[in-house]
Amino acid sequence: MSRLKTPLWLGTVLFAGLPVLSACSSETQTSAAEQQILVDQATVTVQSFFVSNSTNSRTHTLLKKAKAVMICPSITHMSVVFGGSGGKCVLLSRDARNSWSDPAFYSLSSGSFGLQLGYQNSQIIFFIMTLKGLQALLDHQFKFDASAGVSFTSFSSNAQSGGTSAIKNDIYAAQKANGIFAGLALGGTKLSVDSAANRAYYSQIVGPEDIVINMRVNNTSADPLRRVLMSSSSATSSETDEK
């Protein structure tokens, strides 16, 4: 009795498809609990940026005027000849009543090439100052480069004071590493919508525009993050107006 033999080419196709199947299964296993960890980390990041800093700082001035913020609690940079960085972020927008939306989830990545050695973990907050800047981030993928269609810049510890300077860009970025504000190279940085994370956190298929603009969904577990943003921006407004 002869056995049926699997053609060699079919075995190769099935084997090659395993990583794809594995990646898909890992995406579907993304849970609300995993995203809640990111939201909780974002809450701590906001506190570290604003609670202990003077209300005259550049970050406070930007928060007061921002249409939205994107918070990246843990961006890892590792480079050994080939450099790169990546992490997860959340985007929240603010309405006219100073009420913040629930978070939309994003992934951040960038790459570089050069003779470099090092490892660094940092926190980043993007201040979105205009509706144009916010609309750009609502696209499925946004890349900080010359063709982005919006103006952006970052600032270091040297720019922490002088909060009265004019707002000239659509997006500002502040990076904090080891408790110190440091310069940030945005060129080539890419932000992508994390659809699996949004779906897991809100138990439905939902895009970033529905979350941060239409505010169609709500997860009460994000309320501490929303409250710390509201209190920080409210304190900034009142204390600044008194001066």
UniProtKB/TrEMBL annotation:
The keyword Cytoplasm does not apply. Residues 110-230 form the Ysc84 actin-binding domain. Residues 1-25 form the signal peptide. InterPro entries: SH3_domain_YSC84-like, Ysc84_actin-binding. Keywords: Signal. CDD domains: SYLF. GO terms for molecular function: phosphatidylinositol binding. The keyword Kinase does not apply. PANTHER family: SH3 DOMAIN-CONTAINING YSC84-LIKE PROTEIN 1, SH3YL1 PROTEIN. This is Ysc84 actin-binding domain-containing protein. The lineage of its organism: Bacteria, Pseudomonadati, Pseudomonadota, Alphaproteobacteria, Acetobacterales.
